[in-house]
Amino acid sequence: MIFIILGLLAAIGPFSIDMYLPGFDAIAASLHTTVAHIQLSLTSFFIGIASGQIIYGPLLDRFGRKVPLIVGLGIYIAASVGCALTNTADNLILYRFIQALGSCGGMVASRAMVRDFFGPTESAKIFSLLMLIIGISPILAPTVGSFVMAHWDWHGIFIVLAVMATAILLTVIFILPESHGSDPRISLMPKPIVQSYWQVFRNRQFFSYAFAGGLASSGLYAYLAGSPYIMMNLYGLNEKQYGIVFALIASALITASQLNRYLLNTRSSGYVAKIALIVQSSIGVVLAVLSLSGIINLYVMVALIFLFLGSQGFVFPNTSALALAPFSRLAGSASALMGSIQMGCGALSSALVSYLHNQTAVPMTAVMAGCAVLSLFILLAGSPRPADSRPGQNRR
Q1: Domain coordinates of the chain in residue numbers?
Q2: Taking the model in full, what pTM does it have?
Q3: Burial of 111 per CB tally in 10 Å (0-12, 13-18, 19+)
Q4: How many C-alpha atoms does 334 have within 13 Å on its Cβ side?
Q5: Distance between CA atoms of residues 351 and 247, nearest Å
Q6: Most CB atoms within 10 A, among 81, 152, 242, 329?
Q7: What is the CATH number assigned to the segment(s) 2-176+188-384?
Q8: How many Cβ atoms are within 10 Å of 191's Cβ, its own excluded?
């Protein structure tokens, strides 16, 4: 049950991203604006997650995991209701930012609690299991969003999110145990907080794997930002068909993350991550070149994106586990900083797709390819030590 709760907490952010994607056109029409303007609500969500996680890190280390988590879920529920009741696009963008701040608690706490309970190699396997739950959200979320749109309207999407978060909040309060007690030694003054984050940031292993994983993940967020327009406007899919394609592509992420658990029985996390990034970069370049040439069709694009995100299923669990491996006392801060880096990269990539929007697939595919190639470069240039084979080393 604890594992399921951690998975649901980790999935709050992804589910919040994916569920309203099929409603972009309806939201834009209802709020008398453009789809490009509504896309900024996705960007503001990424910015909120990226910045909010920095706040939760010290709080989770100082007060334990549950109290900041409960407060964050309360903020998320209130902001979701605000999104449902808004009547302007600018207010939606603002409420999405606040909603993201609330969701940060679940994302940071779930990663920190995995680190609390498990060692580096075991953590990679647990992150793979969490990816099973996280990966289901891209399949379920657009489908649920389309169902709500068909039987209600886009406002109902955010009401459903509020109800779901309320249910998760109740399980956190009454079922989820505390994994890390409060630590009065952790100061909440600005200078010690900055010093703690700097201690984490300058760790070579953390830096290499956090940025490599963050940039690889940002290719996914570029896809999330660009795919509604490409699939529904360029290729003529309706909301239901888009949900099916979205689910198919998401299944690659789920399948790969589960295969990763078995690969780790014979290969190190660092090795698997490196090979996966090589494959992802190659696929990304092919996808971008074909899009630029204008000869790519729907089936080829879906197949290449399927393989691209399948590679991500091997990257995320391993880079996450290796980035957090050197830390114990500062696991909350390390989890927050890693998440902030990941979502910061995601915010930039999604904003870049929106900024470069030219009614073709090139902006999305070019950003996806660029993210993968840069991620591979950082991983190879950083050459982090294989600390996953020395789980007791360099604890902080």
Answers
A1: 2-176+188-384
A2: 0.72
A3: buried
A4: 31
A5: 24
A6: 242
A7: 1.20.1250.20
A8: 8
